[in-house]
What we know:
Elements: E1 3-9, E2 16-18, E3 24-30, E4 37-44, E5 47-51, E6 55-56, E7 61-64, E8 75-83, E9 93-99, E10 111-113, E11 127-135, E12 141-149, E13 151-156, E14 159-160, E15 178-183, E16 191-200, H1 202-205, E17 222-230, E18 236-240, E19 246-248, E20 253-257, E21 261-265, E22 274-275, E23 277-279, E24 286-287, E25 293-299, E26 302-305, E27 311-329, E28 334-340, E29 342-343, E30 349-350, E31 356-357, E32 360-361, E33 368-372, E34 376-381, E35 387-395, E36 405-412, E37 418-422, H2 425-439, E38 442-443, E39 445-446, H3 458-471, H4 475-488, H5 526-538, H6 541-559, H7 603-606, H8 610-631, H9 637-655, H10 663-671, H11 677-693, H12 705-714, H13 718-726, H14 733-738, H15 763-770, E40 773-777, E41 780-783, E42 793-800, E43 803-812, E44 815-831, E45 837-848, E46 851-854
Parallel strand pairs: 2-9, 15-24, 21-33, 41-44
Antiparallel strand pairs: 1-3, 3-7, 4-5, 4-6, 4-8, 8-9, 10-23, 11-16, 11-19, 12-15, 12-17, 13-14, 13-16, 17-18, 19-22, 20-21, 25-36, 26-27, 27-34, 27-35, 27-36, 28-33, 28-35, 29-30, 31-32, 37-42, 38-39, 40-41, 42-43, 43-44, 44-45, 45-46
The structure holds beta-D-glucopyranose (BGC).
The site of beta-D-glucopyranose has 9 residues, from helix 3.
Amino acid sequence: MLTPTDLRTEYLTDPIGIDLRTPRLFWTCEGGISQTAYQILAQRGGETVWDTGKTPGAGMAGIAWDGPQLGSRELVEWSVRLWDEADRPGPWSTATFELGLLDSAEWLADWITGNYRPRRNRRYPVDCFRKGFTSAATPAVARLYITACGLYQASINGHRVGDFVIAPGFTSYDKRLHYQTYDVTDLIHQGENTLEIQLADGWFRGSIGAMGARNVYGRETKLLAQLEITTPDGVRRTIGTNKSWQWSDDGPIRFADMKDGEIVQLGRRPSYRGSARETSHPVVPSASNNVPVRERERFTPSITRTPSGKQLLDFGQNIAGYIELDIAARAADRLLIRFAEHLDDNGELDPSSAQVRAGKPTASPKQEVLLLCTDGVNHYKTSFAVFGFRYAEVDSDLALDPADVTAIAVYSDMAQTARFECSNHLVNRFVENTLWSMKSNFLDVPTDCPTRERAPWTGDLQIFTRTGSFLMDTSALLRKWLADLRDRQRADGRVPCLAPDVRNNEYIPGIDFIKRMDGAAGWADAAVLVPLRLYELYRDKEILRESYESMKAHVLFQIGRTDRTGLFAKPFPKPDRKYISNAGQAFGEWLEPKDVYAQKVPWDFIAPHPEVATAYLAYACGLMVEVAKLLGHDEDIPLYAEYHRGCTRAYVNQFTPIDTDRQSKLVRPLALGLLDGVEAEQAFTRLIASIERRDYRVGTGFLSTPLILPLLSRGGRTDIAYRMLENEQAPGWLHEVLMGATSVWEDWEGEASRNHYAPGSVCQWLFETVCGIDVSGENAFTIAPQPGGTMTYASFSYDSVFGTVASSWVRDGGTVKYRFTVPANTTARIRLPGGQVEDVHAGVWEYEENAFVRSE
Ligand code: BGC
C-alpha cells in the first residue's frame, strides 16, 4: 500500500513558529509504484478545516495550503493518504506545523539591554537577565518567542530552553532579524518560576570576518523575549522583556567572542542586582523558517604531551564546534585551552592557518578558552563561541582525563542526504572530508572556513551548492541565505562578495577593500547560480521566483560593465568591446596550484578579469533565458538572449584560440558552453594535452574545479577524469588525504585554511557521473553510471525531495553489474555506458547481460 513518508512543511519537519501564511506541504512515499491521487485533511483544535477530498495527481512536493487563512500561533495537524496505481487508497500519515507571531502588534515585549553605555573599544562580560513569574496553573501550552541582537541562551527554572545554539543565527540585523519559537510547556510549573537569559556579543558586536572587525551591527547588544503561557482554561498570559527585568553582568562568562573564545569563572552566579534598560530596534523580527544550529557529533580525544610539555588533545577530526569537560580542581586552578587545525613540524599546536591577515601572522582569532576554577568538580561547556579545530592544547597544572573531555561538532542541522562508497578508500575519505568541511561551514550561513574568516563568501557557495545539496538537505538553509543575499544586493543590482556583511575590508583602515570587489565575476554570480542549482535538485519554482528580481538585477548590473575599460585594463577593439566585461575588480580563477599560476597580490584583485567576467556574463545570460521561460518572464528574454549571443561571440573573437597549459583557461569556455564546432574541439584536445603533460595532476583553481571532471565526461573522456581524481600526487584531492587531511584544504599546497568546502565540489562528479544520478524533473531521475578508473565498485544513494534514489555497480572480471533503486511515484531513465537506454518506474532494477530485470 502506498504510504506517505517524511512529511514536511516548507522543507521542515513539524516546525513550530514558521511565518509563511500559505505553507507548502511535502511528502515522499513507499510501498507502491505510483501515486494517482492524494487527500489532505487538516485539523485545527480537533476541527477539520481543510479537506482536499480525493485529488487526482502525482504531486508530492510543494502542495500549497488552500484551507482557511491561518493566523498567529495556530497549530495545524495535517494528514495525507495516497491512492496507488491500482486506485487503492493507502494509510494516513500525519504531521504538524505551527505558526509564529505574524503581526508586529503581537510583540508585546520591549527590547531590553544591559544597563550601561557601551564604548567602542571596550569588551564587556555576558549580560544576564532574569524575570520571576507566577503561573496560576500548570500550563496547557507555553511558548517562548525570542531573539537578540547578539546571541542569547535562555533557561527556565534552571533548564536550558531548546537546543538551538548560537541563536538567533546570522542575518543583516539592520534589515532582517529572526526569532525562534520554543515549546516550553514542560519547563513551567504551577507557582513560582524563573526565566533567565544570557546575552553575548555574537556576530552583532563581537569580532567577525577576516579582520576581526567589531561592532559591525552596533555597539548595544539587546534582547527581545516573549513568554506566552496558556492555562487549561484557555487564558493566555504574556511575560515579555521590559524594564522590570533584573540585570547584571557579573555572571560566570567574563568574556565571550565567537572567534576569540571565552573567559569563564566557573561556579559564579550573577547577582542580578541591576535593572534592564529599555531600548529599541528598527526591524520587526520574522521567523527564520530554517533548520536550527545544533550540537551534533561528539569526539573524545587522545591526550599526549607536546615537546614543550603542554597537554595535547587530538580529537581525530577537524571540525567546527567547541568542548565540554569536567575536572576536579581547587579555587586557584586555571586552564588555558587553545584550539587549532594542525600541529607544526615539532608537534606543537600551530594556529597559523587561522591566525593570518593579508598574508601576515596575527594573534587573532584567538580560539581559546580560559577557565578559572572553583573548588570541587568543575563543569564547562562553551556557550557563545565556535572554533575550527582538530587539536587543543591545555596549559594547566591540572591533568585532563580523556574520558572527561568531549569535542562537539556544531552546525546547522540539515539532514545528511547522500551516502557514497567505492573501492578506493582514499576517495571515500575525500568525500567524508568534504562532508566535514560542509558541516564545519554551515553555521546558519554558509562560510569559507571556520577559523580565519568564517565569512559568508558568495563565490565559495556558488561553487559548492550542487555538491552540498547532494550531501545534505540545504533547501531551508539556502532559501534563507538567498534572502540574506537579497538584503545586501545594492539598488544598482550589484551583488556582494559576502552576505551577510562581515566587513572583511580593513586591510588598509578606512578603505573598503572587499566592498570594492562586490560584483566580482564568479562570486556575484551566486545570485543566479545558487537558486538555479537548488532548482535543479529540488525542482521548486517558488525558490526561483523569490530570487528572480535579484537574478535579473545582477545580470543587468553585469551588463553595465560591458563596453567600458576599467582601471588598469587594456581596451578591447570595436565591435567586440560592446560585449566584453572589462570593468570592476574581481578575483579571477582564484587559487590555482602555485606552479600553474601564482597570484599577484594585490594586482590581480585590482585589475578587471575580462576573460572570466565575459565568460560568466555570457553563461548567466544563457541561463536567464531558460529561467525567464520557466517563470513566464518572456519580456526579459530578448535582452538576455542578445547578451548571451553577443558575449559568446566577443569571447570567441577575443580569447580564442586558446593555447595554454593553464587548465582553467580551457575549462571555463568549454564548461560554460561558449565554444562549439572546431573551437570546442581544439580547446578540448588542448585541455587533454595539458592534463597529460601535467601527469593528471589538478591544475584548476576555485572556479573551474567543479567544472573539469563533468566536462571531461561530457566530452567522452571519463577515463581521464578518473585518472585526475584518483591521482595521488600533489596537487590533487587524494594527495590531501594521504597527507592526513580530515577536511578539505583551501589551497592545493595546504598552506592556508584546512577547512574550505569549495575544492570538495569535485564530489558532484562522483554522484552524477560515477554513479550517474541526477534529478531530471518533478518525480523524475536520470541514472547514467560510468564505471572506470581503479574502482571495482561504487554505490551512491540520495534522499532526494522525491524519495531515495540509488545507483551502484560492481565490476566482476570483465563484466559490470548494476543495481538501481527508483523510489515510489517516480520514474527514471537509465542509460548504460554501452548505449542501452531504458525507462523504468519505481522499484529495484538490476542489469545483467543486456536485460533489465526488476528484482523487487
Ligand atoms: C576566502 C575565500 C574567498 C576569497 C575571495 C578568501 O580569503 O577564504 O574562500 O572566496 O577570499 O577570493
